[in-house]
């Protein structure tokens, strides 16, 4: 802060500090607070008021549909008892007449109408949403409503009256529940519980024996993610997906480090100055292309008829195409390629500050190349390695486009895909927010643990420029 004040004065320093605070508040703090609030709010469809609103909607829709049949019953009286064609000139098929048209004669007021879903659901004995282990609850029993339903065996007029009564009761109850829910706190941790709740995995005895022999399922069993109870197999699918994604992200980070450390060393310490520019251009130019285009380019390489399979088939090395899009290793390679610069440049920036005389001195003292790297280069480059590993791990853990495009749904989804599906596919954004916030916390813990293991502090990152 003193350096800022000395260099830019109070006014510019104050503006800079305010800009940083505003940036942090708008882009970091407020989104996380919003995510926490949504994660601790039960989904609307789980509220009792939502069940009442659904009942009101079904009763209203039932009335609208029944009115069309009421008109058809009344119309023949002014037409000499002749049948009136239904909408579009087509007769309404009956469920009990083998698809034959049922004439709407004037004296058939008690005839059974076709099945109407909303009328079938217009029942005050609607089940309320409750968590696992809680007793079942029903709308009429909990809120003292009369047991009403729309009886399809009654005349249309009576069915309309029944639907109207149900709709009125549901509307009054909905307004009352809405007011009560607005005046009480609905915060809950049940959305986080969805991450750890076990799900029944229906398996035949043969399939069960096969899956129990798999190494991955054995490991899940050892850490409590998969277990057997009363002869049935249960699995904590949310935690299983989270654990698998984190392990994959760590493996991607290790792969990227193995690839990028020799590159950074070569460019920074083992290349004449006149060649460094060409090596840097070779690293940077491919990344001038849009990321999605580079990912889709990989599909042309690993496809069943792609470059790699075509070359192997032409050489006679294989007789059938290799299903690369079913292999997790393919995703590892593509993610490492996609984010390679985030690993290379932090190490490169730190290695360029190393005095080459230290390397020469170590060699003169008889140190082997391995010992030179272990005792001289790696300790000096440790902040760059830490920054590169953290950046690559966080990007890999949050990767969405690479697993989605490369696997094409043929592999287990990554946790980022699960969060996306909760928000946009299943419209379960409250659980998705809980997943997202929990995932962020877990990643931060892993990063803090990594920094502790590397013996690096935040001020050490200042060496990475």
From TrEMBL:
Transmembrane as UniProt keyword: yes
Subcellular location field: Cell membrane
Gene Ontology process terms (BP): transmembrane transport
Domain of life: Bacteria
Gene Ontology CC, one term: plasma membrane
Tagged with keyword Metal-binding: no
Membrane topology: Multi-pass membrane protein
ABC transmembrane type-1 domain residues: 242-454
Transmembrane segments: 12-30, 246-264, 276-295, 330-348, 384-406, 433-453
PANTHER family: INNER MEMBRANE ABC TRANSPORTER PERMEASE PROTEIN YDCU-RELATED, INNER MEMBRANE ABC TRANSPORTER PERMEASE PROTEIN YDCU-RELATED-RELATED
Similarity field: Belongs to the binding-protein-dependent transport system permease family. CysTW subfamily.
Protein's recorded name: ABC transporter permease subunit
């Amino acid at each position: 802060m003193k350096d800022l004040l000395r260099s830019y004065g109070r006014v510019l320093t104050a503006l800079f500090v305010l800009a940083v605070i505003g940036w942090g508040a708008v882009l970091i703090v407020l989104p996380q607070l919003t995510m926490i609030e949504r994660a601790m709010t039960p989904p609307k469809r789980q509220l009792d008021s939502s069940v009442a609103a659904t009942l009101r909607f079904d009763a209203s829709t039932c009335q609208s549909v029944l009115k069309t049949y009421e008109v058809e019953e009344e119309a023949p009286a002014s037409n000499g008892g002749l049948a009136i064609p239904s909408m579009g000139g087509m007769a309404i098929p009956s469920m009990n007449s083998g698809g034959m048209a049922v004439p709407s004669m004037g004296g058939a007021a008690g005839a059974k109408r076709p099945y109407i879903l909303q009328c079938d659901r217009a029942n005050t004995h609607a089940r309320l949403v409750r968590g696992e282990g809680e007793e079942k609850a029903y709308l009429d029993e909990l809120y003292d409503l009369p047991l009403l339903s729309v009886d399809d065996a009654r005349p249309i007029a009576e069915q309309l009256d029944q639907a109207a009564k149900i709709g009125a009761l549901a509307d009054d109850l909905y307004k009352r529940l809405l007011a009560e829910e607005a005046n009480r706190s609905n915060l809950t941790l049940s959305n986080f519980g969805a991450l750890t709740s076990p799900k029944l995995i229906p398996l035949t005895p043969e399939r069960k024996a096969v899956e129990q022999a798999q190494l991955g399922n054995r490991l899940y069993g050892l850490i409590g993610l998969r277990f057997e109870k009363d002869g049935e197999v249960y699995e904590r699918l949310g935690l299983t997906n989270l654990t698998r994604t984190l392990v994959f992200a760590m493996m991607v980070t290790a792969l990227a480090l193995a690839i990028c450390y020799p590159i950074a060393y070569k460019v920074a310490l083992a290349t004449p100055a006149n060649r460094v520019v060409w090596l840097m251009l070779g690293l940077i130019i491919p990344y001038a292309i849009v990321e999605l285009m580079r990912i889709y380019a990989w599909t042309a390489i690993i496809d069943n008829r792609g470059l790699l399979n075509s070359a192997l088939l032409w050489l006679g090395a294989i007789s059938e195409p290799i299903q690369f899009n079913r292999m997790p290793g393919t995703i590892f390679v593509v993610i490492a390629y996609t984010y390679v610069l985030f690993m290379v440049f932090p190490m490169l920036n730190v290695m360029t500050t190393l005095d080459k005389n230290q390397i020469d001195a170590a060699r003169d003292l008889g140190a082997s190349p391995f010992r030179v790297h272990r005792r001289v280069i790696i300790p000096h480059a440790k902040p760059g390695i830490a920054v590169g590993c953290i950046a690559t791990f966080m990007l890999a853990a949050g990767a969405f486009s690479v697993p989605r495009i490369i696997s094409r749904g043929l592999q287990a989804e990554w946790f980022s895909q699960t969060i996306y599906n909760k928000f946009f596919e299943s419209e379960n954004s409250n659980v998705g927010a809980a997943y997202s916030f929990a995932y962020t916390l877990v990643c931060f813990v892993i990063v803090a643990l990594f920094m502790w293991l590397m013996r690096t502090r935040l001020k050490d990152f200042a060496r990475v420029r």
